[in-house]
Amino acid sequence: MSRTTGIEIRHARACPNRSGATCRCKPTYQAQVWNRREKRPIKRTFPSFSEAKSWRTDAMSALRKGTISSPTRHTLREVAEAWIESAKRGATLTRSGKPYKPSALRGYEADLRRYVLPDLGATRLSEIRRADIQELVDRLVAYGHSASKVRNAIMPLRAIYRRPVARGEVPINPTTQIELPMVDGCRDRAASPAEAAELLDALPDSDRPLWATAFYAGLRRGELRALRWADIDLAANLIHVRAGWDDKEGLIEPKSKKGTRAVPIAAVLRGRLIEYGLATGRGDQDFVFGSRADRPFTPSNVRKRALKAWETANEKRREVGQSELNPIGLHECRHTYVSLMFEAGLSLERIGDYVGHSSAYMTDRYRHLLEGHEAEAAKLLDDYLVRTNTATRLEQVGRPLRQLADTNSAEFDHALTEQPR
Q1: Tell me: the pLDDT tens digits for 266-324?
Q2: Least enclosed by CB within 10 Å: which of 4, 291, 312, 399?
């Protein structure tokens, strides 16, 4: 081993180099650093000298900072199983310090089992390299998986490595600096006001209030399922979002800290809710849109009924030469709500309060709504400056001119234009 680099070239057992002849194998490179605290070396083997040198540099820096220890001997499969169980108990938290949602953990578990563990599950956590994960990403892309699916498959790996990296059990986080496919910048579908009304009119009477609440209040699907009549304050015109619904866990907390919120009830929605409440006759603790008073609705059934209703409406529209209705999903109704509120003049920050998202997320997610509004924004600024400038000039003119305005607006306008600017 070279004292200057701390890297040893390792040849195959049958390689002639071992007896002093010319090398005929593909050697590997073992990098080593000495852990004084544990009085033992930390070693890693790499296929190239540059990778070994890079790891050794990072490892020496981590040793000086005290953020590295001898690598764990557990395999990725063992660590992943322990991580999932810990997250289910609420012992392992998200970056924001909140428990993982059951649906998120089920997705993580499914992606690990299907895409990650078959290739890397038997490898020790400390021996997985960036190149290994990059190869996994490249294979998933080659198999034709979408960019979002590839990113989702790597996401649980990133969560799993977070704690071992923080504890120094692995010297380098191999999930960083990975080249991932670019997710399509396609925009989520949002219906226009007229289109939303036509879609609602085509639905069965019993389903119309549910879809109207999605269109005009922007609740998530799980929030719609968990909504009870006690959450709807018709006197104050507010819907209080207090919970979501998970198929396996039942009632769960809202998706984020901002998920607990009060949403204003527009007039276009209020009448529908009143009529629906009178028709169903359910109590405060009953589910508003449940298939029964004590059972939330099943999304697939709601979707099937809506698609059937829209197809029936389209058959009639085709007969008279009208354009067909474009079916929509409950989540797209939420995007419609954001679009409608923005077009009505509300800022993305205020809309974020109503849909339960941070301002930063709203600006990034719905940046496309700002496109085409540049002239309107400039006009708003111009109008504001004109108003403030006029007020300043009025103060400069003085009380006599204001008194003149009270008695003769025409003389006031003339006098104001004669004032120096």
Answers
A1: 999 999 999 999 999 999 999 999 999 999 999 999 999 999 999 999 999 999 999 99
A2: 4
Q: How far is CA 126 from CA 79, 173, 237, in A?
A: 11, 9, 56
Specify whether the CB–CB gap between 76 and 117 falls below 8 A: yes
* Closest to 32 in 3D by CA, of 61, 62, 55: 55
Angstrom CA distances, 342 to 76, 191, 345, 352, stand at 46, 13, 5, 11
Check if the beta carbon of residue 167 is closer than 8 Å to that of residue 175.
no
Is the distance from CB of 245 to CB of 222 less than 8 angstroms? yes
3-state SS of 12-62?
Answer: CCCCHHHHCCCCCCCCEEEEEEEECCCCEEEEEEECCHHHHHHHHHHHHHH
In three state form, how does the secondary structure of 159-200 look?
HHHHHHHHHCCCCCCCCCCCCCCCCCCCCCCCCCHHHHHHHH
